[in-house]
Each structure stands twice: as structure tokens, then as C-alpha cells.
Amino acid sequence: MRVELTVLGSGTSMGVPVMGCRCHVCRSSDPRDKRTRPSILLRYNDRAVVIDTGPDFRQQAIREDLDRLDAILYTHAHADHILGLDDVRPFNMMGAHVVPIYGNRPALDGLRRVFKYIFDGNYPWGGVSLIKDHLITGPIELFGLEFTPIRVMHGYLEVIGFKFGKVAYLTDYNEFPDASARQLRGLDVIFFDALRHMAHPTHQTVAQALSEVDRLSPKRAFFTHIAHDLNHEETDATLPDHVRLCYDGMKLEFDC
Question: Looking at residues 161-185, what average pLDDT do you find?
């Protein structure tokens, strides 16, 4: 089975450029330095599965000519990963179907708090996203592809990444349990959180992400959830050949 992975967004919670900032990255003319909030799209078996729907989901979906949405996986319920859930509505109308969403208990609880009007089922004015939530407790199969949840810690919050085939997507974490590392060895591609060079209480630095690359030895690694501290071209020039910053619109194809 052939899978196409598209990076919908590669930026941190404020995106890049940051509003009001005049730093050289925010003023860069390199399109790879324009970063919307983090998300990826998987297309396979004539299906479309998205991991996270941030505030830029509408813009990302239009950019990638997305004309269907078959499922959403959530890593966690922070605003930069969920606020696009309301923009699922056009896909309900096009496909005349309810979109299943998946997450761990903290993610689903957070979604229910933020989008109470969707989950209550009694919104009097209509026009809400039609979704059905499913609790992730282990590997799940979606349209012929298995997704294995990978537990990481984002400060105090338990976040899940996902492994599918020989690829894994991880975002928003600063602690990487040994048990999770054992699930990820020997993969072809891993996406790692690499916010910036300066230490952060809930995200990895570039140096910490490189340490995890050495620890897990994927054939290729991509860094995501990138702040405006990192210029794409300058940072890539400092990385090993098999490690790169990802960027909005980047595409990979692989067999599962």
C-alpha cells in the first residue's frame, strides 16, 4: 500500500511569522520559514487521515486541495492542535458522513470542554461538525493501515504520537520514556519535536532531538513544531545529512 504524507504545518503554537515580530526568520522570504500550526495528512487507499486540526486547518486543507476527510487522530488537546475541529463541517457536507476522531482520555476530555456545543448534540442553530469520538487504548486500524500510539510527556501532560508502517510522527514533548523508544527503533522515518536551541520546559531543543535521533537511529529524521528562532536554510546546514527540518507542504511517499 502506497502512502503519501504531507506536512500540513510545521510551526509552533504562535506560527511563523509571529505577529508583530521583526526577527530575520519572521521577515524571511524563504517559503520554508512560513510555518502554520503542526499537523500532517496521510492519503492512502483513496482515504484521507489527518493528525491534529490546528487553527490553520482550513487554510492547510485548501492549500492541499483536500476534498475528503475520513478520520482525525489527536495527539493532545492544546489549542494549536485542535481549534480547527469546527472546520470539519464542509467535509460532513461533501461526504454526508460523520467523521470519526481518536485520542487518549486527556485529549478527548479537552476536546469536549472546548467544543461543548459539538458534543452536547443540542446546539439550537445548527451548523456544527458531525463527529464521533473514539478512545485510543492501543493500536487501531483505519482503512487498512495500523496506527500504534506512542506515549510521550509534554511537561505534565501525556501526549501520544503515532507509528504507522515504518514511519512515526511525534510532536510536543520533552520526555521520551524508554518503553516508547523501544517501539521506535529500526524505523525508516521519525518526526521529532525540535522547537529551538534554547531550553524549554515542555519541548525538546534541536540538540535534544539530535540525541534522540542517535538513540533511535532512523534512516531519516525530520524536526517539527519549529519556532521562529530557527532559520530553515541556516539550521539545515548544521544538521547531519539524514536529518532535516520539515516545512509546510513537504511530501513523503512510502509503502506500508
Answer: 95
